[in-house]
Every structure is written in C-alpha cells, then in structure tokens.
Amino acid sequence: MADSYVLGWILCSVMALVALCGVVLRRQKWKGISMRTEPVKTVLTSNGECGSADASQADVISLELALLVPPSLTLSAKYGYDGRRVQVIERDLSEPDRIVGELLQPGGYLKLIELGLEDCVEEIDAQQVFGYALFKDGKHTQLSYPLEKFHSDVSGRSFHNGRFIQRMREKSASFPKYITSSLDMFYVHDILFSNVHLEQGTVTSLLEEKGIIRGVQYKTKDGRELTAFASLTIVCDGCFSNLRRSLCNPKVDIPSSFVGLVLENCHLPYSNHGHVILADPSPILFYPISSTETRCLVDVPGQKVPSIANGEMANYLKTIVAAQVPPEIYDSFVAAVDKGNIRTMPNRSMPAAPHPTPGAQLMGDAFNMRHPLTGGGMTVALSDIVVLRDLLRPLHDLNDAPMLCKYLESFYTLRKPVASTINTLAGALYKVFCASPDQARKEMRQACFDYLSLGGVFSAGPISLLSGLNPRPLSLVLHFFAVAIYSLGRLLLPFPSPKRIWIGARLISRASGIIFPIIKAEGVRQMFFPATVPAYYRAPPPVK
Description:
InterPro entries: FAD/NAD-bd_sf, Squalene_epoxidase, Squalene_monox. It is an enzyme of class 1 (oxidoreductase). One of its GO terms (molecular function) is flavin adenine dinucleotide binding. The chain has helices at 2-31, 71-81, 106-114, 161-173, 312-321, 327-339, 377-392, 401-408, 411-414, 416-433, 439-453, 457-466, 473-492, 498-522, 524-528, and strands at residues 58-64, 86-90, 103-104, 127-129, 131-136, 139-144, 156-158, 177-180, 183-188, 191-194, 196-209, 212-220, 225-235, 253-264, 274-277, 284-288, 293-301, 343-349, 360-362. It is α+β, with helices and mostly antiparallel strands. The strands form 4 sheets. A 7-stranded mixed beta sheet has the order 6-5-15-16-17-14-18, sandwiched between helices. It has a 5-stranded mixed β-barrel with strand order 1-2-11-12-13. α2 (71-81) packs parallel to α7 and α3 runs parallel beside α7.
C-alpha cells in the first residue's frame, strides 16, 4: 500500500507543478511582470563630510544595526581573509539579549565550517542538537537528523544568541596586526588579509551619486556625524531595517508572535533534541540553550498578544498553554511563568524581492525572512554569505559598480536552493501545524504527524530538508503533496463516502492554497529551473 501512495503523490505532484507553471507563464505573458531597478533617493549631508579614522576608501562597508545572525561579522572575517579592506558599523557592541536566533541547523553548521568560523560556537556552552521530537494529543515521535555520512562533530547547535555574536566579534578582533606600506594588514594561518575595522555607530542614510551607492552617513557613539565610503556597501540591518526600502520591495507579513521563557534545570523528554508540541491554537517549541537552560517559545497567532503588564499573559500561559505541554516539562514551565521574565517578539516573513542597485548589496533579515518555527534563519544567512563570498573571491577590483551589480545578480538565483527550500518549508509547516476548525485542515495536520511517524524515508526526507542538509525544492514539494495524498488515501480507503470525497477535495485545495502562494513568492523559475535564468551564467567582470 505504501508503494501505491508513493506513486500517487508523485503523479499528483508532477501534474500540479505542470499546471502551476502554465498559470504562471500565462500571467507573466499578459501582465508583463518584470523586476526593475528603482532609483535610490539622493542623500545630502548638511554638516559637512568627515572621513573615517583611516582616510582611505574601504573595499566593503558592512552595516549591522540589529542582528540575529551576524552577517556583518561573518562577512568581515571572510572578506578580510580574501584581502578586502572592511569597515563594519554596528549600532550597539554590547552583548545582545534576544529570544530567537538561538538554533543553528546542521546545514548552517556546515556553512560555518566552510567559512572557517566553527569555533564561534565553542566556549559559549552551546548544546548539540540531533533532531526533533514531535508531540500531538499525548502521542510523540522522534525525528533524527540524517547525520550518518558526516563527521561526529556535525550536528545542530543551540545557544544564547548574544554569546554567539560576542564570539563573532572576538573572532574579528583577535588577529595579530602587521603594518605594510599604508595598509593595516593581518597575517593568520598563512593567509594575508586586510584590516577589518569594527565601529559602533548608527547608520542614518545611504550616500547615492548618479544612481550608485557610494557609502553611508552615520552617527558615532559620541554623537558625531561622519561619512564612510566604499566600493561595496553591504546592508544587513535586521528585520527592522530602515534602509531596505530603496534596495528592495519589502512585503512584510506578521502571522504571529513568539512568547519567550527560559526554563531552568528542565529535563526534556528527548535530550539534545528540539521539541515541537502541536498545540491549540499553534505550536510550542522547547530546545536547550545551555547546559542548565531551556528556551520555550509559545506561538500566539495574530499581531496582538495578551498584556504582560496586567497579568493577562501569565494567566494565558497557565490556563491555556501549560495543560498542553508534556508532563515532564510542566513544573519547570509553570515555575518560569511565575518567575515573570516573559518576553515577546513578532514573527515576520518577507520574500526576497530585490532592486539590484550598483554599489549596494542587501543581506540577512533586511533582505529575506521566514517564520522562525523551523529555526532556519541562520542557515539561510550563512548560506547566502558563502554564495556572496564565492562570487566576490575572484574579483580584484570592486570599483566598477554597474558591472559588479550586473555580475552579482547571479547571487539571487544561486542562493535559491537553500533559501527557497527553507523558506517554503517554514511557511508551509507553520500553516499545517496550526490548529483549525476546518475538517480538511484537521485531517492534514493529523496526516502530517502520522506521516512523519512512519519513519524511514517519510521522516528522513522532510527532516533533511528542514536541517538544510538536502536543499532541494522539488523534493520539498513532493513530500508536501505526499502528506496530502497520504491523508486523502486514509479518507477514501477502504470505502469512500460522499462526505469523505468532499473533505478530500477540500484537503487537496487547502494544501495547494498553502504551498503554491509561497512558491510563487519565491519564484517558480528560480526555484525549479535556475539554469534557465540568464544571470545564472554571469561570469566575473574582466580584469582591467
């Protein structure tokens, strides 16, 4: 029977993809959809220009105002290794305290190794994560990462976000300095690289000249207004970015909020695993962030959450949420609520819709966001950094901004396998995991839990996608519709009734309504047919 299910979902998925591609192509033909580069607003300084401490122009400026994954620090280390002069401007250099950005999937850890920064998860009491445990209505199943082919050190990592960021900063500042000619040089591990200058400041605007970003204007910690110039300005100022509007078309959606707690000395049912409870109305997450602390994130649908100040939140957590957590966690959960250190954060999603702009590159959460349910944000950011690093590595001169911009358009296609897989999975899983009064949605939610509980390829396939170890969008779509067909088969066998047939038809409709809009936002052509995108074949600009 399993073979018939597999054949059924393959045929269903292929037919659905063919139909979708036809619809998209017709719409593009009639609507003439295109991505146009919009001009960046010209910014003029009113109090004169003042150069940075180093009077020369940097190769790269990296702006980091609010970071969960520190793209600026990762980029600074790697571009420094590659011989670039890098200036990093951060709003605040103190250790941040956030309730997200605490889980790095195995695929993200492999990217950290590829960047030579794996020691940044050492000495911060980071915990290894080997998979997930899924709970629903008193039942549970274990989903392990498929790590058999990797070194024993390869796994997920969970930690305090602030400690991870401080390790990144230490990494950027820890290299011995040498002076050569007029440049500050470093020499580490037989690799020569230029000075990475880390500075605290708040970027107020991008400096534009004839459609090209030439640098930034920023305020220092002591209130001085300065300008810094570079051949390439990398903007990665986080989910609250005030600079991205001139570099992309932001369509931010806020489907829910996370309520964060820290449980102390809590023993999770499955050690070194993330725990996902399919609760009502939406999922609850637990994962270790140190040897003695466990993070709890309670998802609250909508943009409004109960008030913390008047006690509504504590009451909600005790009366609605506590009864749905596993018994082993209950006492620690209630104790954490009573302690009162409750924090909230809106969950944002935003598809990547860039306006390629000469002299600037958008990265991180300022560029692309997905629901944090699957913990894939850091993996996407680190993968993007590897892609951009590889594109810039063969370039000796970044001064021809228009030619560089045209060359870097390939970045948006080359990043798609990892980014679109994780983005689509995050959006689809969140909608499937949320409770719904609709019978078709209920059936699909239960079928998803039962499908993953089957084990073998039925659990290893989806978990490899979630972990970033198998970034294949087509595999994701096939597994998604396999769940739908699996649910449909359970409804119709052994004897279909008119009611069951109607629920099954609605189930397929609901499944299509969940995943197809996400795929459309990601870009059908770039996701499934990247080789047909001209930018995919862009070669580095010729050396002058």
